[in-house]
Recover the amino acids of this structure.
């Protein structure tokens, strides 16, 4: 089981977020990048922990959102590699959609690496659709780059349920 909670003082989590991000991404965000993102208006940090936890207060993943007026964007969503395939990503995504809905967002956007098939499948299951592509958006550790698929989900009370994703 996964417990997702909204973090009301997210700057305290900057070192933890940067360390977790480094576990999941070849080119992770720095502490400075997290501090900058979390200091902006309209940001929301949701952290997932396993229940029961493997270690006290040990996050297994998180999602960082930003909302401006009626549009929200998932800036980053990650699950620790050792905790994948246990439903944590699904629960984080559900919580992100719920947060966007509660804050009157009409659309939720994200970018996903074209090569990240597991994430793309998760987003498609949650009713995200591809609306564009950014060439060379994601940098790799080797210095090359990969494209991002831009995805969008309409966030309103008329979207039907899909595979457990609530309205």
């Amino acid at each position: 089981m996964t417990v997702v909670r909204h973090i009301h003082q997210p700057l305290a989590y900057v070192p933890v977020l940067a360390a977790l991000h480094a576990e999941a991404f070849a080119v992770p965000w720095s502490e400075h990048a997290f501090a900058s993102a979390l200091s902006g208006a309209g940001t929301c940090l949701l952290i997932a922990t396993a229940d029961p936890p493997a270690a006290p207060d040990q996050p297994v993943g998180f999602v960082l959102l930003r909302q401006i007026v009626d549009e929200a964007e998932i800036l980053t969503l990650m699950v620790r590699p050792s905790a994948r395939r246990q439903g944590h990503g699904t629960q984080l995504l559900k919580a992100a959609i719920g947060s966007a809905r509660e804050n009157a967002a009409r659309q939720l956007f994200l970018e996903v690496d074209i090569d990240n098939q597991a994430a793309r499948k998760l987003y498609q299951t949650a009713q995200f659709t591809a609306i564009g592509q950014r060439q060379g958006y994601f940098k790799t550790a080797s210095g090359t780059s990969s494209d991002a698929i831009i995805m969008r989900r309409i966030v309103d009370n008329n979207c039907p349920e899909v595979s457990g994703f609530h309205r």
